[in-house]
Structure prediction request, 622 residues.
Amino acid sequence: MKKVTAFAPATVANVSCGFDILGFAIDDLGDKVTVELKEQEGLTVKQIEGDGGKLPLEADKNTCTVAIKAMLDALGIQKGIAVSLEKGLPLGSGMGSSAASAAAALVAANELLGKPFEKNDLVPFAMEAERMACGAAHADNVAPSILGGFVLIRGYDPLDVVKLPVPKGLYCTLIHPHLELKTADSRSVLRQQISLKASTVQSGNIAGLIAGLYESDYGLISRSLKDVIAEPSRALLIPGFYELREAVMEVGALGSGISGSGPTIFILAQGKETALKAGHESKKVFEKIGLEVDVYVSEVNDRGSYISDNQ
Amino acid sequence: MKKVTAFAPATVANVSCGFDILGFAIDDLGDKVTVELKEQEGLTVKQIEGDGGKLPLEADKNTCTVAIKAMLDALGIQKGIAVSLEKGLPLGSGMGSSAASAAAALVAANELLGKPFEKNDLVPFAMEAERMACGAAHADNVAPSILGGFVLIRGYDPLDVVKLPVPKGLYCTLIHPHLELKTADSRSVLRQQISLKASTVQSGNIAGLIAGLYESDYGLISRSLKDVIAEPSRALLIPGFYELREAVMEVGALGSGISGSGPTIFILAQGKETALKAGHESKKVFEKIGLEVDVYVSEVNDRGSYISDNQ
Prediction:
């Protein structure tokens, strides 16, 4: 029977001043999902690799199958599809792990079914998987994982997804400290009331960041990469956060922030060399405080999810 | 003696979701300032026309001379300069009246002195005039009045002014109801604490608006032109505000909002015809509630202040 494999990249959401509205995709690092038609109707999870046995095999609890189900529902059809998931992303790290699985599953299943949808149209289906996995149908990981590049979620009512340009040579360094941080804790520390002043500063910075991306103005991007709303509370949950920032700015990074709801930290840099240096310096910071980290360096991915095998 | 005249346009600040950070300039409507060298050192206001006798002639209280003084201080020189101001803008209307006077004075004086500064450099001097006139050195009127087009004030520390592109055919209709509204009142109704949710919505909208300007995406501009922070409080001070919005959206406008701190309302539209229709419909709304209005229709001005006479 026909069999399609798709790859979907890791993503950084809550990009600093783009809290809750902006995400971007990473190269190379991500999840692979293979879908194959099967005789019997219904969705099944055939196997999962690389998750340490932590992810559910039940079709109504797995992000891959929940996403595909939303797609089939929209088409008003039933199909027999078996899903195999190869996790390349650590779970609960703030790198958009659940989103990548859903994105890869959708892109693969869409191909399997003869491309009834454009990539853009897949976003709402992936959001259903996020609703199941995280309790909120947010789009700031799934949209960049599917579409690639920087993606703005202007609003949800109705869903308004805007793909933004990626300046050439923009690199991201991800620092994943081996540290458990529950999304619920990251959520609970957020202040629900903020000052008008802080909101205005945040608006200025997100506006500057968007303009910087369009202009490929690295100076403006750097000056704009400041989050005065979520970061001041959340950074306290991540030891070494501010020491890392100081160290990477010293070697020429554009800025740093919490990826998603952490504990992963993203660093943006112009050029691979600076991104590598930033990774090196970050590792030293965490060594000092006795925390192991994984370091990933990648260009910002403008491609998003893609078919990696089609038999 | 040498004599230079400059024109500076009216401006719309607090552009909807761009509260406190975004402004744009209007064509045709504005102030004219003539500066001439005089033998005796010091700045004087020679005459003011069109203000109904309301503006001060004292050099330390007039925005033209205060702005020029800031420029001379930066150059570390003293000069004898006489200023004549021809007001084309109504005072206290929310169209950047004080800003236009300062902008025209600076552009004229800069020319008179042999252009020691680029236009960009004049913004901080005009901000000093705003500090004197309004109590706050805000830049969201003076920067677009000098530079033209849409101008983002990313931040003030340090001052970060970003000129944005203007989509071809973007028109503005200004509705100036004959209604006194004190800036202090407009300020006092603003809530100083806002919800995280509102702040996030505002961020999404300003990000969408900036992207829309770069993409000349009128749909995105329209969907983004929403202010959930200042407008809900301030609109209550302007009778007919929401009726006007309904009427102009019906004839195809992109959006509407309070210009500056009001009472003027701005409407953005694609093409002159829609802008004229919006003006017509607005007039009808205010006629119903018995308020006279002035209506101005103009393309968004990408030119800013300019020398109109140089002898």
Remarks:
- Residues 169 and 271 of chain B are 5 Å apart (CA to CA).
- Chain B has a mean pLDDT of 96.
- Chain B has two domains: 3-165, 170-299.
